[in-house]
Design a protein that fits this description.
The protein is an alpha+beta fold and 265 residues long. It is built from nine helices and ten strands.
């Protein structure tokens, strides 16, 4: 099913290749709360206001396509699967050269400058891209057959087609894994973690972890699905951990357990 999905700020999804031509009509639909028929690029499109997990949006469908529960469910699933990235991830991704196919990101942290320089020398032989990030060096690899390093912390993502996801994985490893060595994202559950969760987030995270979907999560908090969706996204941005990835839920659980054990002491 082809559709256009938009809010007052712009187009969120455009399967019809129309671009920004509909933005003014979208704002009219939102202001009037009334469906509007538009002809564009030879297509007759009906723009309709709908409530979604992301709040009130405008959905554009071809006039002969019905807006039913199945379509509403489809839209919600699109929104839930849509990835957005913390600012630090977006900014780092902009500085990486053209990314082709599946690659790895490695984030190196070394306190001693001499050891950092030595590590750079060894990693440069296998890296296809390098970026200095303050106290860290970010590397792009085409392989995870990496040289053995001592007295350093190197955090390596899985092979990703999207550089933003690779950067996110490397960043969360660096933030939460304790110790020195080379650490790999897919082995996150094997490592000692130090996940610090703010008091204000403890209950919300616990409710999300025991909820089987967003609707259930909203019910536990007694809020609307759109508010639950907003809260989930805020937590994922803040902690770099996603609730739809079991490996990362493990990290959330470690944070909750550590906090409760600390309270008992």
């Amino acid at each position: 099913m082809r559709c256009v999905l938009a809010n007052a700020e712009g187009i969120i999804r455009d399967d019809m290749g129309i671009g920004n031509e509909l933005v003014d009509y979208v704002r009219l639909v939102l202001q009037s709360n009334t469906a509007v028929s538009v002809r564009s690029h030879g297509l007759d499109i009906l723009l309709t206001p709908i409530e979604t997990v992301s709040g009130r949006l405008v959905l554009g469908l071809l006039k002969d396509e019905p807006l039913n529960d199945a379509v509403r469910c489809f839209v919600d699933q699109l929104l839930l699967s849509e990835r957005r990235w913390p600012t630090i991830v977006e900014e780092l991704a902009k500085q990486i050269d053209a990314w082709r196919g599946k690659r790895y990101v490695g984030l190196l942290h070394v306190k001693d400058f001499t050891q950092r320089y030595a590590a750079r020398e060894r990693l440069s032989s296998v890296a296809i891209g390098t970026l200095n990030v303050g106290e860290h060096d970010l590397y792009v690899f085409s392989t995870i057959l990496l040289p053995t390093l001592s007295n350093v912390k190197l955090c390596v993502s899985t092979a990703c087609e999207d550089p933003k996801e690779a950067i996110r994985q490397a960043l969360l490893l660096d933030r939460y894994v304790v110790g020195e060595g080379t650490f790999f994202y897919e082995r996150l559950f094997e490592y000692e973690l130090n996940v610090k969760i703010d008091d204000s987030d403890l209950e919300t995270i616990a409710h999300r972890l025991i909820s089987y979907d967003l609707q259930n999560f909203a019910g536990r908090l007694n809020v609307s699905p759109s508010e639950a969706f907003r809260l989930q996204r805020e937590l994922e941005d803040k902690y770099l951990l996603r609730f739809d990835v079991g490996l990362e839920c493990h990290a959330y659980v470690q944070g909750l357990v550590s906090r409760r054990q600390g309270e008992k002491r």
